[in-house]
Amino acid sequence: MPPYSPQRSPKTNNVYSKPYSPSRSPVHRVQSTRSPISPRTGTPKSIIRSNLTPSPKRRTQEDYSSMTLEEYIAIGKQNTPKSEANKSPTRSKPLESSTHSTDLRDQRIRVCVRKRPLNKSEVLSKEKDIAQLSGLRTIDILEPKVRVDLTQYIEQHSFTFDNVFDIDSSNITIYQKTTKPLVEHMFEGGKSTCFAFGQTGSGKTYTMLDPKHGLYTLAVMDIFRLLNRGRYSHLSAWVSYYEIYQGQLYDLLNSKNKLIPRDDGKGNVVIAGLKKVQVNNVDTLMKVCDYAGSERGTDRGKDSDAKVRMEGAEINRSLLALKECIRALDQEQKRAPFRGSKLTMVLRDSFLGNSKTCMIATISPNTSNSDHTLNTLRYADRIKEFKGESDTRLACSDVQDAPEIEFMDTQEDITDENTALPQITKEHVKSFLNEHWIEIHESEEYLKIAKEMLRDINLASMDSDDFFVKYRDYLTKLYNLLEKKLFTIQCLQNKIKEELCSDDE
Ligand SMILES: Nc1ncnc2c1ncn2[C@@H]1O[C@H](COP(=O)(O)OP(=O)(O)OP(=O)(O)O)[C@@H](O)[C@H]1O
User: Fold this and answer.
1) Is 205 close to ligand 1, i.e. is its CB under 6 Å away?
2) Residue 462 in 3-state DSSP?
3) Phi, psi (5° rounding) for residue 461?
4) Family, per the entry (predicted)?
5) 19 upstream amide cis, omega within 30 of 0
């Protein structure tokens, strides 16, 4: 199982308009004019498909096994769509005339992937591009591997999402297909959230916060264009900006004051003391964002290895909690575990009621990042599955002949041995591990940190002055770690319980 290395916090883009309750998290709050959409039925298949062009014929693993990586990549390039990189942001169509956005209106959660191009240093070090798009929704990762006998081979992993964006997709195209429908939804009285997540350097900032054509900027341009229309003259825009770092909220518009999200007893999340600023045009908003951006992630001191690990573990924990919440909502459970992390606490409103969310996974295409890329895509894939539309919908689209890579004949071996036993194949074990790799890896990661801290203490001499201080520090950190770990273990335990119960049936 590949390690899940530290990723930066998801970059979120929350914009809201008045009137709304000032004590709530930053999403639009006006009376809804549409009925809430059920998570299970939020994406009619016909609407999704009507927006697609046919995918090129997919090859099987057998085709690939006799091919070098270069040959494979050459094939991939033939399928690459024409460049749209030069489109200027001002060419963005007015909101009302967008055909994409109307087609995408009924989706409650969209999960998309954006691949960035190889950067200069990756090109100089002759790194290969191992992420190949197939059609508008499928991405294949060609993972270079080595067998025990040291022969090299390529394992192909295929994923299908609501949209995959190649290196020549402009931010405008991505905006049209992800964020624009969310802006429309806000003006119809709904709540909208859009965020990017992915490994460091994979393009979150480029996608979300580029000052000229980041999704944030394009959304804001549309919001003010609409606010200037007579029919919305009763609305105004307010912005707040906060950062979640190591499970703590900091107000970026107010001297990085610590903030505490609380449940107001009526099921609403309240971030007491969060500063909100009214903005009347794009320029003012951009100044506010610049200021907040300059406050982001500073004064944290030197990053030690252990600290970076702790940050990574915290981010993983938030992503795990987020996945658990979406899973609970998808299964229409009465209670979703929003309290599992600060991220889910503050995003709670984004998943309840008349809300729409778009998640954009950003990935690096180079070989040496293949572990991170696969982790990001597996995570996004799980979220997509929770939308209750993955397998059946995709069965008749372009993944139907996706290659079987491993364990092709294991079922036969086992059933011959003892037909009375449940038919658990390696495939079954593999899919369980794949499905729960975050929880399992989280546990490993916490143990590693605890071990490192212990080694630190052992290095301090017993009779030195700081031994006692280190010991107390160790116990405090261990206590906190274990507290966080309990949640992870509990999730994993629930999954195992479900698995055992399903075997009994
Ligand atoms: N789609 C893209 N096209 C061209 N360049 C890109 C693209 N995505 C990212 N880049 C470039 O790659 C570099 C890293 O991107 P970016 O800073 O957005 O990553 P990030 O995910 O925000 O990283 P971090 O988590 O460290 O903040 C930047 O120089 C950026 O300009």
Assistant:
1) yes
2) coil
3) -70, 140
4) Belongs to the TRAFAC class myosin-kinesin ATPase superfamily. Kinesin family.
5) yes
The predicted structure's pLDDT at residue 369: 92
Ligand 1 mean position, distance from CA 87 (Å): 19
pLDDT of residue 179: 94
Strands 355-363 vs 191-198: parallel, antiparallel or unpaired: parallel
168: Cβ contacts below 8 Å, ≥ 6 apart = 80, 81, 82, 83, 84, 85
Q: Is the CB of 81 under 6 A from ligand 1?
A: no
What is the sign of the dihedral through the CA atoms of 30, 34, 38 and 41? negative
At 122 the pLDDT is 95
Distance CA 184, CA 324 (A): 28
Residue of the CA atom closest to atom 11 of ligand 1: 203
Residue 117 Cβ inside 6 Å of ligand 1? The answer reads yes
Q: Is the CB of 8 under 6 A from ligand 1?
A: yes
Asked whether 432 lines ligand 1 (CB < 6 A), one says: no
Structure-token pair, residue 141: 């990762």
In single-letter form, the type of residue at position 271 comes to: I
What is the residue whose two structure tokens read 């201080």? 469
Tell me how far the alpha carbon of residue 377 lies from the centroid of ligand 1, in angstroms: 17
- Closest residue by CA, ligand 1 atom 12: 203
Distance from Cα 200 to the centre of ligand 1, integer Å: 8
Distance CA 475, CA 2 (A): 30
Indicate the residue type of 297. G
Whether the model clears a pTM of 0.80, i.e. scores above it, the answer is no
Instruction: Report CA 398 to chain centroid distance, whole Å.
Output: 23
b (16+ CB within 10 A) / e for 395-434: eebbbeebbeeeeeebeeebeeeeeeeeeebeebeeeeee
User: Per this entry, what is the length of the chain?
Assistant: 505
Residues 58, 379: contact at Cβ < 8 Å?
no
What stretch of H or E contains 248? strand 248-251
| pLDDT averaged over 10-residue windows placed end to end, the chain, 505 residues | 38 34 27 25 24 38 51 47 37 37 64 96 94 94 86 91 95 94 91 91 93 90 91 90 87 91 76 91 85 71 63 77 80 75 84 86 94 91 66 31 29 39 62 65 68 67 64 72 70 73 57
User: Cβ(383)–Cβ(323) under 8 Å?
Assistant: yes
List, in order, residues 6 or more apart from 15 with CB less than 8 Å away.
Answer: 26, 28, 186, 192, 216, 219, 220, 223, 237, 239
Q: Is the CB of 201 under 6 A from ligand 1?
A: yes
Q: Cα(204) to centroid of ligand 1, in Å?
A: 6
Give the pLDDT confidence score for residue 151 in this predicted structure: 85
The two three-digit tokens of residue 254, written as one number: 């107010």
